[in-house]
Specification:
Blueprint (H helix, E strand, L loop, with lengths): L5 E7 L32 E6 L7 H4 L2 E3 L19 E6 L2 E5 L5 E5 L5 E5 L30 E8 L5 E5 L5 H8 L17 E8 L2 E7 L26 E7 L9 H15 L1 H4 L3 E6 L6 H15 L5 E3 L8 H37 L14 H18 L1
Length: 391
């Protein structure tokens, strides 16, 4: 299946049904009074995250999604039928944004996450709600509300803990095959990987992380060179970036250090926050040069890059050094998780204190102490009817 990570669709929620103005007409019951029912609500449109879907290709072809209108009210106090909601299943990691305003509507980061993206209109009120002691034969009714309509952008960002960054043929897919059960395509020509792929890496019993391989990046990607930098969005959710450097490039004139600097510059052009993420250097293809030459090239690269962060030397083809890399990644992710847990624990007492302070103020705001929306609508309808009669 073709991988599609971006789409634009139009969503149109259903309008609410109209209220009815009618009167009870039965034998032996004079002046039966108003009995017009309310209109039904229009259908809303929801987006639901489904882990069994991994692409937005369906929304490249089905671009307009409409919900049905609510049924109109009728006599004998019959309310209109409410329309069913429309459910749009999307991959986990999809971000939904209003195409006109740029405001984010939803982030489906977990399986089963459900967000409304277009609300259906409320049904209109029948004349049943307008009766009062001064207006016993109301002929007023209200029309149903219009449902929301908008154009939205769907953007898929894969959920991974670790992302791979590097030039084409740096050995990213080979590394994924070496440390996980995933089998991305591997070949001896550039841009073998044309779409992001994920692999689950097992550290030990009960511990694992997800690694993401994206198509290779080259200098000038921000201007459209190669495949561009559109796939860098899939690294934005990661907690760690592994920057792979080929110490034995096919082109003898290629300089791995200059390539590494160029990729860092492209990363910064795309997103400064992504550039600031933890990034480790991983020197790959140790199997293609002898140990002494590899050591010399690595020391020279570290010196020229002035690199002070963690780095590793591996051979993805023969899995040399990959276990040390996996264990180090596991420790880093555990540290990040502990820091996040500590921050959440620090926020919890503050939230509880604020809730306790607001409790006396919100005492009369409980559901039992509040009128329902329908009751409020009825009171407003009576007020309007009384005002019209007195006028």
């Amino acid at each position: 299946m073709k991988f599609v990570d971006e789409a634009f669709i139009d969503v149109v929620a259903g309008d609410g049904g109209n209220g009815m103005a009618s009167f009870r007409r039965e034998k032996c019951i004079p002046r039966g009074g108003p009995d017009g029912g309310d209109g039904g609500r229009g259908g809303s449109i929801y987006a639901v995250a489904d882990e069994n879907i991994n692409t937005l290709i369906d929304y490249r072809f089905a671009r307009i999604h409409r919900a049905e209108k609510g049924g109109n009210g009728s006599g004998a106090d019959c309310y209109g039928r409410g329309s069913e909601d429309v459910i749009l299943k999307m991959p986990v990691g999809t971000i939904i944004t209003d195409a006109e305003t740029g405001i984010q509507i939803a982030d489906l980061a977990k399986h089963g996450a459900r967000e409304m993206i277009a609300k259906g209109g409320a049904g209109g009120l029948g004349n049943l709600h307008f009766k009062s002691s001064t207006n016993r034969a109301p002929r007023q009714k209200t029309m149903g509300e219009e449902g929301e309509s908008r154009r939205v952008q769907l953007e898929l960002k894969v959920l991974a803990d670790v992302g791979l960054l590097g030039y084409p043929n740096a050995g990213k897919s080979t590394l994924v095959r070496a440390v996980s059960a995933a089998k991305p395509k591997v070949a001896d020509y550039p841009f073998t990987t044309l779409a992001p792929s994920l692999g689950v890496v097992r550290i030990d019993h009960g511990r694992a992380f997800v690694i993401a391989d994206i198509p290779g990046l080259i200098e000038g990607a921000s201007e459209g060179a190669g495949l561009g930098h559109q796939f860098l969005r899939h690294l934005q959710r990661t907690k760690l970036i592994l920057h792979l450097v080929d110490i034995a490039p096919y082109d003898p004139e290629a300089d791995p250090v200059l390539e590494a600097k160029a990729l860092a510059a492209e990363l910064k052009k795309y997103d400064t926050q992504l550039f600031k993420k933890p990034r480790w250097l991983v020197f790959n293809k140790l199997d293609l040069v002898d140990a002494k030459e590899a050591d010399t090239r690595i020391k020279d690269a570290l010196k020229r890059l002035r690199w002070t962060k963690p780095w590793f030397a591996i051979s993805g083809m023969h899995s040399t050094g990959t276990q040390n890399l996996v264990r180090a990644i596991g420790e880093h992710l555990a540290t990040v998780a502990a820091e996040l847990a500590a921050k959440e624990a620090a926020k919890k007492p503050k939230v509880e204190a604020q809730s306790a302070a607001l409790a006396p103020v919100m005492g009369n705001n409980t559901p039992s102490g509040q009128a329902t929306e329908q009751a409020q609508a009825r009171r407003e309808a009576r007020r309007i009817a009384d005002a019209s009669v007195l006028a």
